[in-house]
Amino acid sequence: MTLASKITIGRMLLAPVFTLLAVAYGRSTAAGAPDESLRWWALGIFVLAAGSDGVDGWVARHYDQISKFGAFIDPLADKLLLLAGVITLSLVDWGVPGWRLPLWFAIIVVLRDCIILGGIRVLHSRGKRVRIQPHWSGKWTTAAQMFALGWVMLRVTDLPPAWPCVIAAVFTAWSAFHYVQRGWTILRAPETDYLAGGS
Question: CATH code at 80?
Answer without folding.
Answer: 1.20.120.1760
